[in-house]
Amino acid sequence: MSMFCYQCQEAAKNTGCTIKGVCGKNETTSGLQDLLIYNLKGIALYGERLYKKGKLDNATGRFVAEALFSTITNANFDDSRFISLINKAQNIKRSLKDMVSFPAPQHECATWFSENESDYFFKSKEIGVLSTENEDIRSLRELIIYGLKGMAAYVEHAAVLEYEENKLYGFMMEALADTTKNLQAEDLVQLVLKTGEYAVEAMALLDKANTGRYGNPEITEVNIGTGNRPGILISGHDLKDMEELLEQSKGMGIDIYTHSEMLPANYYPAFKKYDHFYGNYGNAWWKQDTEFKSFNGPILMTTNCMVPVKDSYKERIFTTGMTGFPGVPHIKPDKNGKKDFSQIIELAKKCPPPIEIEKGTITGGFAHNQVFTIADKVVDAVKRGAIKRFVVMAGCDGRQNGRNYYTDMAQQMPNDSVILTAGCAKYRYNKLNLGNINGIPRVLDAGQCNDSYSLVMIALKLKEVLGVEDINDLPISYDIAWYEQKAVIVLLALLYLGVKGIRLGPTLPAFLSPNVVKILVEKFDIKPIGDVKSDIEAMFGIISV
Ligand code: SF4
Ligand code: SF3
User: Fold this and answer.
1) What residues are in contact with ligand 2 under a 6 Å CB criterion?
2) Which of 163, 263, 332, 495 is 20 to 30 A from 191 (CA-CA)?
3) What is the pLDDT of residue 343?
4) Are residues 60 and 205 in the same domain?
5) What is the pLDDT of residue 520?
6) What is the DSSP string of 7-31?
7) Ligand 2: centre distance to CA 286 (Å)
8) How far apart are CA 191 and CA 195, in angstroms?
9) What pLDDT score does 545 carry?
10) Which domain range does residue 398 map to?
11) Which residue has a Cα nearest atom 3 of ligand 1?
12) Are residues 198 and 250 in the same domain?
C-alpha cells in the first residue's frame, strides 16, 4: 500500500496524498510519522490509566505532546528524528507497562515492540490512517488526532516557558487512547467537542505563559523595510527561541527580523526593548522560497511551516525545537534548556544585509488586554453604528490560488466592518491599507494562530458589554482559513464555545467524510466559503439588486 495522508488543506485532489505529499513529505517520512502516532496511542493506553490514578507524570505527557507536534504539516522532514522518537516511544511504553496493573491493554499499539529499525517502514504499512475501514469512524478519529496535534503544539510552547497542566496531558492520553477503541460515531462526536473544550484551556495556558513571560502585546507599528546591517530571520511560533536569539545577538552588529508567524513577537514589550530587533521581513510561510533567498542572512526555523529547503539558502538555514530537515543543522537545548545560537550569529556577521522587498509599516498587537483598554471606543462605535459587523478571518495562509478570496473579501466588505485576525492568514490583507473607523484600524491583528484565544476573549467581552444572551447574536461573522492542524484545534475550540455558521475555506477538509460534514452542518451550520459577493451578502444581510 502506498502512503496515505489527508491531514492538511493541500491533500492531493482534496482526497489524500498517496505518492508524495504536496508539502514535499515522502512515503518513508509519512510511514514513520504513522508509526510514531501508533506508538503514541500505545503510550496513551497506559497513560490514561495512570492519569486516572493520579500517576501520570508530566515528562510522559510532554513527550507525547512533542512527538505529536513533530508530525504537524511542514514541521519535520527528517527521518532520523522520527526513528529516534519511535525508539524513545517504545522505551516509554516498556516502562509504563510495568506500572500498569492487569489486565494489560490488549491493543497491538500497546504491545508492539521492535528492535529492528528496518521493520519500521513495513510495519507502517499496516497501521496507517486507512487501517480504520469505516470512513466515518476514520474521519472522526482523525479529526480528533489532528486536533490533538494542534493542541500538542500549544501545550509544548507553554511547557517550554515552564507552564504545564497535568490535566491537559491527561486529556491527550484519554483522547488518543479512545481513538483505538470501538467507539461509535455519536461517542466520537462528543469526544470532538471535548477536544474543543480542552483546546480553550490549552490556548488559555499558552496565553498565560506568553503574557506572563513577555508582557501583554501592545499596539505596535512594525517596520517591514530593511536596514544596512546583516540580519537573522526567525520564523515559526516559539517565543522562547526569539528571546534567546535577541539576547545572544545584541551588540553584535546584526539585526533580527521576524518572518511569517513570528511577526507578533514585535508586539511584546519584552522584545521591543532590544534596539537590534528591526522588524518583519516578508510574508506567510509559503513565500519562503523567494524571501529566504533575498534575505541574504541566516534563517532560524523554530516551528512549522517549513518548506523543503532550496539550494539558494541551504547553507544558511537552521532548525530547532520540533522542526527538522535532512542535512540542515539542528540546534538542541543543553541540559538546562538553554540554546546556543552562536553559530547562526557568526554566520550572520559574514552575510550581506537583506535585499529590501517592501517599505513602510504594518500595525498589530490587538490581543485581548490591549483591546480591553480601548473597549469603550469599540463599544461606542458599535452602538452608534459606525462599526456594523466584525468578521473573524483568522487561521492559516497557503499557496493555493483560491486563497485570493480572503484578499478580495477584505477589499470588498463594507467600510463599516472590522476584520479580527490571528495566524498567518492575515498576510492576505494586512498590507492593504483598509483605513480605520474613528481611529480603530479595520484590521485588528491579535497575533499568532494560538492568539485566536484573544479573539474569543474579545467576543465574550462584547457579549457581556452589549448584554447579548447568545454568542451567535453578536454582530460577528466567522470566515476562517485553514491549512494545518493548529487551525483544526482553533476550529474545535470555536465549536465547543457554541459558535455557529462558520465559513471554512478555501476547501473543506479532505478528512471530513460526507456523513461527518452532514453532522457538522446540522449541529453547527458550518459551510464552505462561496464566492466573495454572495458571502458578503449573506454575512452583511445585503440584498443584491
Ligand atoms: Fe499531503 Fe498535507 Fe499530508 Fe503533506 S501534510 S502529505 S500535503 S495531506
Ligand atoms: Fe501559518 Fe503554518 Fe497555520 Fe500558526 S505557519 S498559522 S499555516
Assistant:
1) 237, 260-261, 285, 304-305, 396, 423-424, 448-449, 483-484, 486-487
2) 163
3) 98
4) yes
5) 97
6) -STT-GGGT-BSSS-TTS--HHHHH
7) 10
8) 6
9) 47
10) 365-540
11) 5
12) no
Residue 542 CA to residue 437 CA, distance in Å, equals: 20
The C-alpha cell that represents 240 in the structure block: 522562547
Q: How far apart are CA 238 and CA 160, in angstroms?
A: 9
Q: Which atom of ligand 2 is nearest to the CA of 487?
A: 3
User: What parts of the chain have a pLDDT lower than 70?
Assistant: 1, 543-545
User: Ligand 1 site: residues with CB under 6 angstroms?
Assistant: 5-8, 10-11, 17, 21-23, 25, 73
> How many Cβ atoms from other residues are within 10 Å of residue 174's Cβ?
18
Which of 349, 376, 400 marks a domain boundary? 349
Predicted structure pTM score: 0.97
Is 483 in the same domain as 465?
A: yes
- By C-alpha distance, which of 402, 433, 352, 411 is closest to 536? 411
* Whether residues 340 and 443 fall in one domain: no
The rounded Å distance from CA 432 to ligand 2 centre is 20
Would you state the cell numbers that stand for residue 231, as one nine-digit string?
Answer: 540580519
Instruction: Classify residue 358: in a domain, yes or no.
Output: no
- Name 530's Cβ contacts closer than 8 Å, sequence gap at least 6: 503, 538
What is the Å distance from ligand 2's center to 482 Cα? 8
Q: Which residues of 481-505 are buried (b: 16+ CB within 10 A; e: fewer)?
A: bbbbbbbbbbbbbbbbeebeebbbb
Q: What is the CATH number of the domain that holds 83?
A: 1.20.1270.20
Please tell me the predicted confidence (pLDDT) of residue 543: 61
Determine, yes or no, domain membership for 498: yes
> In this structure, are residues 325 and 383 in contact, taking their beta carbons and an 8 Å threshold?
no
Read off the C-alpha cell for 307: 518548506
